[in-house]
């Protein structure tokens, strides 16, 4: 079992930055691949970024250059640094953990474990 707890969301002006954190429980965290998804009101959940257990990363095209995903296995935590935020980034952001590849998680939009989500609101 892996439990995930996101934090760091909030209200920010367009052009600003936020860093989301996802704290994971469980001794097998280091072997899980991790991802961030988001869901805006009235829209489907979408992949944001992923990082595998050896820290290879993948990003959705609209996030490349603005978002950075990282992990600290000593702290069992995954981060999402979000810069130059836009109003369209407003969504609930979810952390996910799964033993499958990031490519599979992204393609199937599924993961074994999910956090409860953290709200990010970007005002224009």
Give your account of this protein's structure.
The chain is mostly beta strands. Helix content is 6%, strand content 48%. The protein has 1 helix and 11 strands; from the N terminus they run βββββββββαββ. The chain has one helix at residues 102-108; strands spanning 4-7, 10-13, 18-24, 33-39, 46-51, 57-59, 67-72, 77-82, 91-98, 113-114, 118-123. The strands form 2 sheets. Strands 2, 4, 5, 6, 9, 10 and 11 form a 7-stranded mixed sheet that branches. A hairpin with a 6-residue loop joins strand 4 and strand 5. The longest helix is centred in the last third of the chain and has 7 residues, at 102-108. The chain is globular and about 40 Å long. The mean pLDDT is 95.
In short, what is this structure?
The protein is mainly β and 124 residues long. Helix content is 6%, strand content 48%.
Mean pLDDT across residues: 95
Determine the strand fraction and express it as a percent band.
over 45%
Our Rg estimate from Cα atoms comes to 13 Å
Segments where pLDDT lies below 50 for 5+ residues?
A: none
Secondary structure class reads mainly beta
Shape category:
globular
**Share in helix:** under 10%
* Number of helical stretches of at least 4 residues: 1
Q: What is the N-to-C succession of helices and strands?
A: EEEEEEEEEHEE
Question: What's the count of strands?
Answer: 11
Largest sheet: 7 strands, mixed
């Amino acid at each position: 079992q892996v439990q995930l707890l996101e934090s760091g969301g909030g209200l920010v002006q367009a052009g600003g930055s936020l860093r989301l954190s996802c704290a994971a429980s469980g001794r097998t965290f280091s072997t899980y691949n991790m991802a961030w998804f988001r869901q805006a009101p009235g829209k489907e959940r979408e992949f944001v970024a992923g990082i595998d257990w050896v820290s290879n990363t993948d990003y959705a095209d609209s996030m490349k250059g603005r978002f950075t995903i990282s992990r600290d296995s000593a702290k069992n935590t995954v981060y999402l640094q979000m810069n130059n935020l836009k109003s369209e980034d407003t969504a609930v952001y979810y952390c996910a953990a799964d033993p499958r590849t990031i490519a599979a998680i992204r393609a199937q939009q599924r993961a074994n474990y999910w956090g409860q989500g953290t709200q990010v609101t970007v005002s224009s």
